[in-house]
Amino acid sequence: MSEPLVVVGAVIVHAGRILACRRGPAQSAAGQWEFPGGKVEPGETQQQALRRELREELDIDGRVGELVHSATTDVAGRPIELHCWWVRVQTEPRTSTDHDAMRWLAPHELARVAWAEPDLPAVRALESAAGNIEQWESVWNR
After folding, report:
1. The organism sits in which domain of life (predicted)?
2. Please, which pLDDT band fits residue 93 given cuts at 50, 70 and 90?
């Protein structure tokens, strides 16, 4: 088995809704939804990688909070190790270099879009912890 590809995703919450981004046509898994983020480069912490990816993809700065969920998923014979983190942003993203659409979804709406396979475990965890999302946002915004 090959070494897992370590990636990070941002669970950005605003007004009780979570940001979902659809992968653009030039991307692998085009048309599927994901949490914004990307690959952790050598020498980076997960938090550093996530801040860098948010600047590169969404042109926003984020404050990384607690870990939401981690899981490893096999995609076409390659293990993808996705770590999703709570992220607070001062401004909402308006454009993306990697995505052709963005939506703010309530926890009960997450299942309405077709998520990329590596993101599904985190989506399920968020759906089952809907009350925690509001609690986390309340604490985070103090």
Report:
1. Bacteria
2. very high
Bridge partners, 12 (sequence order): 87
pLDDT digits (tens, 9 = 90+) for 111-128: 999 999 999 999 999 888
Range of the domain at 15: 5-140
The residue among 81, 24, 35 whose CA lies nearest residue 62 is: 35
- Strands 62-75 and 37-39 turn out to be unpaired
Residues 32 and 116 sit within 8 Å (Cβ to Cβ): yes
Q: At 68, which CATH number? A: 3.90.79.10
Asked if residue 33 lies in contact with residue 113, where contact means CB atoms within 8 angstroms, the answer is yes
